[in-house]
Design brief:
Layout (H helix, E strand, L loop, with lengths): L3 E6 L28 H7 L10 E6 H4 L4 H4 L3 E5 L5 H16 L4 E6 L3 E2 L2 H15 L4 E6 L10 E4 L7 E7 L4 H10 L2 E11 H11 L1 H15 L4 H8 L8 H6 L5 E6 L3 E2 L4 H7 L8 E3 L2 E4 L5 E4 L4 E4 L4 E5 L4 E5 L6 H10 L10 E4 L2 E9 L3 E8 L7 E3 L3 E9 L2 E5 L2 E5 L4 E4 L5 E4 L6 E9 L8 E4 L8
Parallel strand pairs: 1-2, 1-4, 2-3, 6-10, 12-14, 13-15, 14-16
Antiparallel strand pairs: 4-9, 5-11, 6-9, 7-8, 7-9, 8-10, 16-17, 18-19, 19-20, 20-27, 21-28, 22-25, 22-27, 23-24, 23-26
Helix pairs in contact: 4-7, 4-8, 7-8, 8-9
Length: 470
């Protein structure tokens, strides 16, 4: 569609799907259903309405330079240096798309981590939304409530025509008594978080209802119009912006909002209970993924990512296994996972931050063993042609043993090759770099020894992926 752009919000760091979802790899980058990540599935379901070149992804800098590098490197991206909720992100990208194209595009805004099962009806709703947005309306898509859920926001509508309804008010997540009244009334919809509007219209409404944010956006526009790179401007100025959602900042206050009801098989996949409902089941109501062996289990979700789950006689249980954590809860109680993650943070553990296997732009590493007595063992894999940053460590030395492939090692002023079954040593404080200049995968074992073994003990001097000290 000419003049039609899509903006996908992929900056969230949700905890409700822990232990699969972690701070450094949240659910939009996970393949919960099939082989595609949720972000990739969001992009795929837009075909053929829009080309990939007209799709923009807004996400955190840490994702683009970390575990989601492979997913994001081929996409148009705007990188946030920090989280500032949805209003700043939406305002900045609307201004940027207007200035880059010298047009006033219609923009579809989508979360990256939702499921839509009826793509045909979804496309029909988008076409209706585009036509409505062309008339100067801010369009939101409402989901007819199936039950009095308290985890969603609600939107009340008035009398409409041609499948488009004026919005009376927004209500944030209500209590159960209020939710029941909303569902019984028939005039309330779940807030899907999907929107369509013309770029000029959303910027006008931001200016009307959020003048401080509007001024910050205009300052950024003046900088990139003067020749500064748009991403540089965003990286330097985004942190100063108000942190507020587009719902609260604009949609709840504007008199230009219309709602289009949708029956599209939508889910925000906001809990493991939702994953269970969306997954295929066997005759006993079990949903199983990975290496699972069960006897006499019923209505349970058993999800293994690395080891065998052997279960007998379980009913209405959710069990999710990763290399470094196992989460167990009763079905219907999976919202408590967020509280579990808070407890993990409180005790100073890292299981909420990253997986045992951590992906980097150059490959990945797995922590095999770590002891408080002062050593850590990693298995490192470096992709062909890739190299780590030139770096040093203040509090640890490293011993490297090549298992397969060939390593090109820079240590101080010397550069040399380490082959299979050979090893080398990196003293504390020595500048060093590991590279794979061959055509085969490089695999090696690293043993760290020191008083502190955290990943933040890295000083980077040169990095092809433009990462800061991390």
């Amino acid at each position: 569609m000419s003049g039609f752009k899509v903006v996908i919000l992929a900056g969230g760091s949700g905890t409700r799907l822990w232990p699969l979802s972690r701070k450094q790899l949240p659910k939009q980058f996970l393949n919960l259903f099939g082989d595609e990540t949720m972000l990739d599935a969001t992009i795929s379901r837009l075909d053929p309405l829009v080309s990939k070149d007209d799709i923009w992804v807004i996400t955190g800098e840490e994702y683009a330079k970390g575990e989601a590098y492979d997913t994001l490197k081929s996409l148009n991206t705007i990188l946030e240096p920090c989280g500032r909720n949805t209003a700043p992100a939406i305002g900045v990208v609307a201004a940027l798309l207007m200035d880059q194209s010298n047009t006033d595009p219609v923009i579809l805004v989508l979360p990256a981590d939702h499921i839509i099962r009826d793509v045909g009806r979804f496309h029909d709703a988008l076409r209706s939304g585009i036509a409505t947005a062309e008339k100067g309306r801010l369009v939101t898509f409402g989901i007819k409530p199936e039950s009095p859920e308290t985890g969603f926001g609600y939107i009340e509508t008035g009398t409409g025509s041609d499948g488009v309804f004026p919005v009376i008010r927004f209500t944030e997540k209500p209590d159960i008594k209020t939710a029941k009244k909303f569902v019984e009334s028939g005039s309330y919809y779940w807030n899907s978080g999907m929107f369509i509007w013309k770029a000029s219209v959303i910027l006008e409404e931001i200016g009307k209802h959020m003048p401080e944010l509007s001024g910050q956006i205009e300052e950024m526009r003046s900088l990139w119009r003067a020749g500064s790179a748009s991403q540089d401007v965003i990286s330097k100025n985004f942190e100063k912006m108000q942190s507020v959602s587009i719902d609260y900042g604009v949609m709840e206050k504007s008199d230009r909002v219309s709602l289009i009801p949708c029956d599209i098989g939508w889910s925000d996949v906001g809990s493991w209970d939702a994953v269970y409902e969306l997954s295929p089941h066997d005759d006993a109501g079990n949903s199983m993924q990975g290496d699972v062996l069960q006897i006499d289990c019923k209505n349970s979700l058993l999800n293994s990512r690395s080891r065998l789950i052997a279960a007998a006689g379980l009913e209405d249980i959710i069990a999710v296994e990763t290399k470094d954590a196992i989460m167990l809860t009763k079905r219907g109680k999976s919202q408590d996972v967020r509280t579990l993650v808070d407890k993990i943070k409180d005790r100073g553990s890292r299981e909420h931050l990253e997986h045992a296997t951590v992906f980097r732009p150059w490959g990945k590493y797995t922590v095999v063993e770590e002891e408080a007595s002062g050593y850590k063992v990693k298995r490192i894999e470096v992709n062909p042609g890739a190299k780590l940053s030139l770096q040093s460590h203040k509090q640890r030395s490293e011993h490297w043993v090549v298992v397969s492939g060939t390593a090109t090692v820079t240590r101080g002023k010397e550069t040399f090759v380490v082959k299979k079954n050979e090893s080398t040593y990196i003293p504390i404080g020595e500048k060093h770099r590991l590279a794979n200049m061959g055509n085969d995968l490089l695999q090696m074992i690293e043993v760290q020894i020191g008083s502190y073994l955290g990943e933040d003990d890295i000083t980077r001097y040169d990095d092809v992926y433009d990462r800061e000290k991390k």
